Amino acid sequence: MKTEILEFSDSSLIIAAKIIHNGGLVAFPTETVYGLGANAYDVEAVKSIYVAKGRPSDNPLIVHVYNNQMIEQIAYVDERAKKIIQAFMPGSLTIVLPKKECIPMEVTAHLETVAIRMPKSLQARRFIEACQTPIAAPSANTSSRPSPTNAVTVYEDMQGRIPLILKGEDSVVGIESTVLDCAHNKAVILRPGVVTATDIQSKTGVDVCYLPDNADLSKVNSPGLRYKHYAPQCPMLLNIDGDISKVKEKIQQLNLIGKKVVVITENKHLVDFSIENVIDLGKDIETISNRLFSCLRIAEKQADVIIAIFTDTSEKAKGVNNRILKSCGGNLI
Ligand code: TXA
Ligand code: MG
After folding, report:
1. DSSP class per residue in 129-154
2. Given 15, 25, 74, 257, which is the most exposed site by the fewest CB atoms within 10 A?
3. Are 229 and 330 within 8 A, CB to CB?
4. CA 286 to centroid of ligand 1, rounded, Å
């Protein structure tokens, strides 16, 4: 299959909507990461998402909508959920609610709940609106790879597997949405993102907690958490205590056995390394989040081993910490 990249425009939207209606897949921009969309009501189209990504079939998809009416069409919305939707949608938050019959089990991987997101990105909402149907969409990367934040990266992974990539703006947030489970008694953040528990609590009064670090993932209602994620093509190590002498020692050891190391670090440690093998993630958490996945994809092209340094333990940094820890497969130095 030939994969076309079309600039986001009124005319490319018409072509995209046609492909979606004929059961095809379209990659599209959102403010978090690029998505790989299919008509959520079309079982065969939804199944082809799993094939294109090489995604395990028990990992459910997020359904993207462009207005509140579409949410009511696909899920049961109680008072608590209403408050959260009112405060955070459109935005970079996904809410998990009891699903209605119309959403096929292939979308939710046989769960009785559905994850719903109304993107903040106007381009994303225009795409969904043009399709006039809820859009099931995971991130547009091949399974286990860092998520794409621009159209060129989508092409790297999806070339030959999908008919169309809508080339819109680069993703500003850079990591995927916060996933909030609102289908059970306690509201729980299953995947941290730019919207924090404190944000939700202070804006809505709803009591929200994070999934504890030691949660038994076989019992958690989000199969996606169990899989390998965001991994670069070479081994990666992570330092979280900012002990630069330890990092330098590791680099020396690796160099001695002929391995080229690329360091990706928050800006404050940049001065400690020679300029040609270090990549700056940025100063503030918004910049770091925006650059993380694209820096991983740049680093893997140059390195035998990547060493990341990220020391921010604040609540706002939870999303980046979660992704970077998974990228390195838990290999800390
Ligand atoms: O920002 C985002 O959320 C991006 C853009 C494209 O919208 N999408 C995204 O989708 O990250 P994906 O498929 O890469 O991640 C979806 C996550 C997975 O961890 C999955 O397990 C979880 O959402 N999820 C989906 N449906 C669920 C459900 N019914 N209950 C619990 N977790 C669910
Ligand atoms: Mg993903």
Report:
1. HHHTS-EEE-BSS-TTSPPPSSHHHH
2. 257
3. no
4. 21
